[in-house]
């Protein structure tokens, strides 16, 4: 027999160390102390204004979670308390008796409680010591290690960004962050099921590794079924492990999105003796990483089903500082937003989490590939006990847990720790002490090869493939491009010729309505409250400096907000178009970052309230399967037609040089065929791309639906006519259609209806209209919106807007 009882009711939380009068506050499980105190009205919203500052004490406190539950002996041989996630330094007591301890948020625990349970009422108390106290004690004992922040996150196995990041607040949580319950069982139970699938393109072997825990010595029978193939395994008395192989002939293949469908097959594993069933949906695909050397360095190409995948990715951070708030619906919404932006891969970044089963299943269903970092980021990590043991146990658990997911295509050892060791002045302060290399180069690859050799492992990112070669060497491995944003203009992306970019990005503010919700007072770019929501070193200055010559110096909040958002979209577009135009030499571009964990000025495309910034629309354009971009090559301009689809792209490519008032000045047409999954660089006669008057002309390329506009001058120098257009607003079901007909050029038209209704959405933005052209933008809103307001400053914006209208 086997029965599971969730223990999510009746919890309270009490502060026990500081003498604060916080006692028996109703608590949510799963959850965390911040959200419990917030729900009880004991703290202000940590995401609002600078409330974060006044809440630092929470991370230094000891918190006791307590509940009572009723129990009556069901005759089972064993009873365990199952904790899927404890955050972090926990002591678990049942009826006053200690039944277990933990110090790792990234592991699950099972504590036997049969001998302590009573008939009737039982009291379960979990005390969380301060994560700081634990981490600082480790720092003291192990010796300090360099990192970017003074916070001790590398001395504890807990979500690192909880201690603050350059886009996140310092809100050090405690609590029961994943489900908890009581499992009673007899005879045996399935302790782990680890399906390893090898697929040769035709047939698949599903090797189901089963580990049982026994309560007795009887022989056990395990059966497994997938795709109408079944098998049986007998575990003789005393034996707790076995492998059952199912050979599946000709299954339908699982593909990344954009390459085919995502057929999933239920795999069920049953412990016949108890009826316990384990079930996951699996997919059949092969994955490999081609790092073979070539004349330049070495390739870095991901192959799925032997087909090279052009990675169009974004980095994923925890979607909330309080991750227990992440519902399956919210995960689905975020992943749908990624797919709708033509993203085919998410890299789950190492300062965050191994995400929930919901996350990876949602990725499996959508064909969104996942690169998963082991959880190490931007710091030197000690390799001392108990941390080494924790890392090993955590890695073994997580590698095994994630084996069923076809979306997971690679494990990465860490984020930027090789770079830190090479470039950030760590070596002298380390004085020969460990910094994590043993994890990335030995422990983790050993775990992956032992438990899941079906997936590639790469020791970190950036990493060149060889400890002797600089980790950010562009000719091999992955690179992170951060000179742009930190130091130089975004046009410097063009200086890079990388094999695979795992991080690059540019900041912009959250949407207006998100900032409006987060900040109480007037919105001003230099208001202390707004600057509190800018966590990057020198972030505000970099944001302004980044406007460079591209866009005017903003004088009001509204202009600052619009121009910096637009500049973010343009900067990342510039990078993506350049990196894509280098394909297949460069086989991937992963933008930093898809999402945010709170309302903030950051690199994200989707802000902390889930709203899409202009960057999101830019990603959708730049990651489109068929993209035209005008690129400089050897002193000339070429049109790069990039075709990331399975069909050749044929048609007439037209390139025109026009005056900014719309007069055609030169034109060239050519029939082109861009091979499937291929690029074509079309050289242009210099008469087409050489302007007579750079400030007053632009270049327009068109091929089918795709279009590229390139200015010859920066916007600050361009002789734009002030935008003139006619706008109409038509009510439609669920909102309005706003149709804008241009009389002059209208450069990068954008609509921000969230200024009128925080929940309003638009289906597109950043379209450039030439004189006579029109576009219809669908505004989603349940409210009555004023048509005049919807089509005027500051809701409707374009680069050459008539300034006098303000
Ligand atoms: C990268 C990331 C993060 C950081 C981002 C922006 O290096 O790995 O650590 O948030 O840059 O600075």
Can you give me a brief rundown of this structure?
The chain has 806 residues and is α+β, with helices and mostly antiparallel strands. It has 16 helices and 46 strands.
What would you note in describing this structure?
- With 806 residues, the protein is α+β, with helices and mostly antiparallel strands.
- Helix content is 19%, strand content 33%.
- The strands form 13 sheets. A 6-stranded antiparallel β-sheet has the order 3-2-4-10-7-8. A 6-stranded parallel β-sheet has the order 29-28-27-26-25-32.
- Strand 40 (725-732) and strand 41 (735-742) form a beta hairpin.
- Helix 3 runs parallel beside helix 4, helix 5 packs parallel to helix 8 (437-451) and helix 13 (557-581) packs parallel to helix 14 (614-622).
- It is globular and about 90 Å long.
- The mean pLDDT is 97.
- The structure holds beta-D-mannopyranose.
